[in-house]
Amino acid sequence: MKTLKTLLILTFMLTMTLGAKEPIPPVDYNFLAKKEVQRFINKMVKKYHFRRSYLTNILKNAKLDQETLDRYTGHYKKGKTDGTWERYKAHVLDPISLEKARNFKENYYPTLQRASDIYNVDMDYIVAFIGVESKFGEYMGDYHIIDALATLAFHKNRMKKFFKSELENLFLLSREEHRPVEDMYGSFAGAMGCVQQVPSVQRRFAMDFNNDGVKDPMDVEDCIGIIAKFMNKKGWKKGHVVAVPTNFSGTRFKKLRTSHKKRYSIKTLRKYGIKPTKPFDESKAYLLKTRNKTHDDIWMAGKNFRVLTRYNNSTSYGIAIHLIAQSVKN
After folding, report:
1. Is 293 exposed, middle or buried (0-12, 13-18, 19+ CB in 10 A)?
2. Which of 27, 153, 247, 306 is 20 to 30 A away from residue 107, measured at CA?
3. pLDDT digits (tens, 9 = 90+) for 175-202
4. Which domains are assigned to the chain?
5. In terms of C-beta density within 10 A (0-12 exposed, 13-18 middle, 19 or more buried), how is residue 124 classed?
6. Whole-structure pTM value
7. How many beta carbons lie within 10 A of that of residue 239, not counting itself?
8. Alpha helices in the chain (DSSP H)
9. 243-245 vs 259-265, strand pairing mode
10. DSSP states of 134-186
11. 3-state helix vs strand vs coil in the chain, percent to 5
């Protein structure tokens, strides 16, 4: 799950909310000429008993998506793939988006309540997840997933091993859910649906939460169940603290390292003059920073915040979800 974090923000924040350029269409490519592809086919036949003719036909017709490949080659620049905090504020914390969040909660309240009760999680954070990932189901991606994953699985890039595993999971998902691989669409990273799941996550967390007989990643009610299940499995504690602002009022904060992976004792934070401005009832806290154009905001976060970053390994992502959730609370 840790390797998913970048993908899940890539899938929406860059392609949709962050205003990516028009995609370059995939082009014909002879994947079958690559020995690596033949080894992949042999593995799928031997290990999972797929028909060789089926795999050969699918990969014969897969296209090379150069734009997708370009995103994962070259030097990785920190902050490039998860978006700056200013861009988050502009695209998912803007007034229109927050109004959509309130409307979403009202429209799906019975389903949200049911998910909250079953999985013992806070419904406002379910709302926020779906808002950040797909603008409440409005943007779910229009990339041909087989093209994206075949391109990334069989061409050199910094996450090639991961994408090859996801291509394997794509074929397994297709068989398990009786959905043709060639009909699956999503992000350039191979993620699909209103909570932007790559195939391995869909296989693990997918559910038929609306009881219509289909585990549909495009169905909002199923997605509500998926996120609630994810939060529960990752250790969410309903009603517990997520994040609170601190008393820091300077311009740039440099006293301590800020990270959603490292916790400090409250005593240590007080030693450096850092205090919460709202109740914080845990003995240790993650110290977080969101960088604005003119100043830093410093936050103290609890264990629940770490659950948010299990879905996407980004402080900005987690704070965005937290603020959307706060905006829709009754």
Report:
1. exposed
2. 306
3. 999 999 999 999 888 999 999 989 999 9
4. 4-79+140-205 (1.10.8.350)
5. buried
6. 0.84
7. 8
8. 4-9, 35-48, 52-61, 66-71, 85-92, 95-107, 109-119, 123-134, 145-153, 160-177, 199-205, 220-233, 266-271, 303-311, 315-328
9. unpaired
10. HTTTT----EEHHHHHHHHHSS--TTHHHHHHHHHHHHHHHHHHT--GGG-EE
11. 50, 10, 35
Cα 91 from chain centre:
16
Question: Which two three-digit tokens encode residue 161?
Answer: 């091993």
3-state SS of 212-228 is CCCCCCCCHHHHHHHHH
Q: Does the structure show a pLDDT above 70 at 5?
A: no
Structure-token match 């909570």, residue found: 195
Centroid of chain to Cα 269? 30
> d(Cα 171, Cα 149) in Å, to the nearest integer?
11
List the helix and strand counts (H, then E) for the chain: 15, 8
| Cα(260)–Cα(62) distance, integer angstroms | 39
Q: What is the pLDDT of residues 226-280, one digit of tens each?
A: 999 999 999 999 999 999 999 999 999 999 999 999 999 999 999 999 999 999 9
Residue found under tokens 């014909």: 28
Structure-model confidence comparison of residues 22 and 174, the more confident one: 174
**In what helix (H) or strand (E) does residue 210 lie, and over which residues does it extend?**
none
Largest Cα–Cα distance of the chain, in whole Å?
A: 67
Structure tokens at 209: 């939460």
C-alpha–C-alpha distance, residues 101 and 323, integer Å = 11
d(CA 302, CA 293): 26
Annotated active-site residue 282? The verdict is no
Q: State the Cα torsion 166-168-172-177 to the nearest 10°.
A: 40
| Distance, CA of 281 to CA of 100 (rounded, Å) | 32
At 201, is the secondary structure helix, strand, or coil? helix
Write out the two tokens for 142: 């229009």
Q: Looking at per-residue confidence, does 17 or 245 come out higher?
A: 245
In angstroms, the CA 97 to CA 84 distance is: 18
Check 133, 166, 168, 221 and give the catalytic one: 133
CA distance 102 to 40: 46
